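User: Some background: our group keeps a shared notebook of sequences we're curious about, and every so often someone picks one and asks for a predicted structure to add to the entry. Today it's my turn. The entry only has the sequence so far, pasted here. Could you supply the structure so I can complete it?
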Amino acid sequence: MNSSKPSALLGTGVFSNTTCPTEKKISVFFSVIFMTVGILSNSLAIAILMKAYQRFRQKSKASFLLFASGLVITDLLGHLINGTIAVFVYASDKDWIRFNQSNVLCSVFGICMVFFGLCPLFLGSVMAVERCIGVTKPIFHSTKMTSKHVKIMLTMVCLFAIFIALLPILQLRPYQIQASRTWCFYKTEHIEDWEDRFYLLLFSCLGLLALGISFLCNAVTGITLLRVKFKSQHRQGRSHHFEMIIQLLAIMCVSCICWSPFLVTMANIGINENHSQESCETILFALRMATWNQILDPWVYILLRKAVLKKLYKIARRFCGVHFINLHTWELSSIKNSLKVAAVSDSPSSSKKTNQQLLSSAVQ
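Assistant: Of course. Here's the predicted structure to add to the notebook entry:
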């Protein structure tokens, strides 16, 4: 079938009446590149996390490492499954009639698109909440946020994302082949009733809510760290504040930039129904933007850390010729130091004694 041919029924999945022609060679090239870069990035992040988890088993870092591991594993599986299906569709010349007689592949593709789209957003918001609690309530975090609780939270997040992905199948509303005939998702054209709108709005609202929670919690965490930094009299730990703030800003920027176009586009289609002016090219571009979030996740959460920032600091100091911070302050972990400094700010009466303990630990 050429992309210019009219629509055809395909089991319970339906081709769109509109067409969205794509260059096969370029599309296959982009799919392979996205898949390869995503797999390599997330594999490297998993290796770094495994090594870090073996070296550091403090409670303050265990929850972060577990959440980060769940995030990069989810991204890795998303690239493996969705990328493999996308490459197969392009390699088969998008001939869905030949390989999707019973609409099984389209249903699996749609479920994976929704699950691997929402799950990283949910995990990002949960990580933001965990970091906010760890900085603002360090005692509560150290006593209540155990590895068992973190694993339960990871399981609940995954089950909720799976439920949202399976909801159309349970309601006998199959996923639809989109206009580009390269991916499957909720019905985005010729919306018939409120249920078609509900799925689009549910996906968009949950994604935007997760981004909003991440933004709010990261803002509170950043403000708290800045407030503690200016209140603290000692110089130790300033680099750790900078490290955490840089990570928070990167997380917010990457998530919002990559996911907002797709979420807003789906919400616009759900609200305006068949009067939406969103073109196939716009939707496809927004989808590729969202794909980049899974590629950049491991670099933001894992690789943009102390070692990388330390090298950047050395380069910046070499070019600027200004001595800002002594590099031995990078020896403490950012999370552990942030908890200690937050505890100092919450206990003014014991600040002098705690400062002496922090100074002695930094020297050791």
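Suggested note for the entry: The chain has a mean pLDDT of 77. The CA atoms of residues 82 and 112 lie 7 Å apart.
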